[in-house]
């Protein structure tokens, strides 16, 4: 069995965060040929479910950079890696030391997802909080409202580059944590950081899916630091030309830009899809 694994933002999705008609038709053709595919994304399930439900994504899917693997067929999680109380305290200390607002992502009783945060201070934090609040499928609350029995999947923050760099340096001192960072879509000159358990990576999750699905050959696509771990585990890895240089260097090869259907064009050539 050959398994194709897509990152979403900056890879399968265009600059508007959508799947183009060209890519949609390519996915349909893959399904008709019986070629298996799924996603490995830094997004949470609630930020992806509506998007993926229309495009034939029926296999288990990797969310939050490998923190969770969700089975859409049975509507439950197959695999989780949560943060311990000590790890949560370390992360919050690192973030608050830079006067940045942490956003804590949870998984709670009844399969409820939650996001808890301090009162946003900067314009960029307010923008992010409002974005989260616009979603009906996730509970939003203050840190004081965080349930004592909630499982912490990851903690994120937005800030100026120097603050985010200092947070990342503090996280590096904790062997059970890993942090990914990148430019924030919410505003130019800002960066995001996402922190979770070191065992939660796209690479680890790829190994789980390979075993569960009996995949003998894995081909993956990604554009960011959080994709490098799955590049290392896959049999083939491809970076779109919009990816950072070090991500391109880690890939088997570099293909077309994500906003020009680079992944779909590669797949049409690779599998000789006549559309």
Name the overall outline: globular
H-E string: EHHEHEEEHEEHEEHEEHEHEHEH
Mean pLDDT: 90
- Percent helix, as a range, is 25-40%
Major β-sheet profile: 6 strands, mixed
Low-confidence stretches: none
What would you give as the CATH superfamily of the largest domain? Answer: HAD superfamily/HAD-like
CATH-level-2 architecture of the largest domain: 3-Layer(aba) Sandwich
CATH fold node name of the largest domain: Rossmann fold
Strand order of the largest sheet: 8-7-6-9-11-10
First-last Cα distance: 23 Å
Write down the CATH class of the largest domain. Answer: Alpha Beta
Radius of gyration: 18 Å
User: Structural class from helices and strands?
Assistant: alpha/beta
How much of the sequence lies in strands comes to 25-35%
Number of contiguous helices: 10
Count of beta strands? 14
Domains (count): 2
Describe the structure.
The protein has helices spanning 8-12, 21-33, 49-52, 85-96, 123-133, 161-171, 202-213, 228-233, 245-250, 262-270; strands spanning 2-6, 36-39, 61-63, 68-71, 76-80, 103-108, 112-117, 139-142, 151-159, 177-183, 191-197, 217-221, 236-240, 253-255. It has 275 residues and is α/β, with parallel strands linked by helices. It has two domains: 2-80 and 200-270, Rossmann fold, CATH 3.40.50.1000; 85-197, Hypothetical Protein, Haloacid Dehalogenase-like Hydrolase, Chain: A, domain 2, CATH 3.30.1240.10. The strands form three sheets. The chain has a six-stranded mixed sheet, sandwiched between helices. Helix 2 (21-33) packs parallel to helix 10 (262-270) and helix 4 packs antiparallel against helix 6 (161-171). The radius of gyration is 18 Å and the shape is globular. The model has no long low-confidence stretch (mean pLDDT 90).
């Amino acid at each position: 069995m050959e398994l194709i694994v897509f990152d979403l933002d900056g890879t399968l999705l265009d600059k508007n965060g959508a799947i183009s008609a060209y890519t949609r038709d390519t996915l349909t053709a893959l399904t008709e040929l019986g070629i298996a595919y799924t996603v490995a994304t830094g997004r949470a399930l609630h930020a992806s479910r509506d998007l993926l439900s229309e495009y034939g994504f029926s296999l288990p899917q990797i969310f939050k950079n490998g923190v969770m693997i969700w089975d859409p067929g049975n509507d439950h999680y197959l695999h989780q890696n949560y943060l311990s109380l000590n790890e949560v305290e370390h992360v919050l200390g690192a973030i608050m030391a830079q006067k940045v607002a942490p956003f804590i992502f949870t998984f709670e009783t009844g399969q409820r997802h939650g996001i808890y945060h301090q009162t946003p201070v900067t314009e960029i934090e307010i923008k992010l909080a409002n974005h989260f609040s616009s979603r009906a499928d996730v509970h939003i609350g203050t840190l004081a409202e965080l349930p004592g029995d909630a499982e912490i999947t990851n903690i994120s923050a937005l800030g100026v580059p120097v603050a985010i760099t200092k947070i990342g340096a503090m996280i590096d001192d904790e062997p059970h944590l890993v942090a990914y960072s990148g430019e924030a879509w919410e505003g130019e000159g800002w960066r995001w950081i996402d922190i979770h358990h070191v065992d939660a990576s796209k690479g680890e999750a790829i190994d789980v899916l390979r075993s569960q699905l009996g995949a003998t050959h894995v081909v993956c696509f990604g554009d960011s630091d959080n994709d490098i771990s799955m590049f290392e585990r896959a049999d083939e890895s491809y970076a779109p030309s919009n990816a950072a240089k070090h991500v391109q260097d880690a890939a088997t090869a570099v293909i077309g830009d994500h906003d020009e259907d680079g992944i779909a064009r590669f797949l049409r050539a690779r599998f000789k899809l006549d559309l």
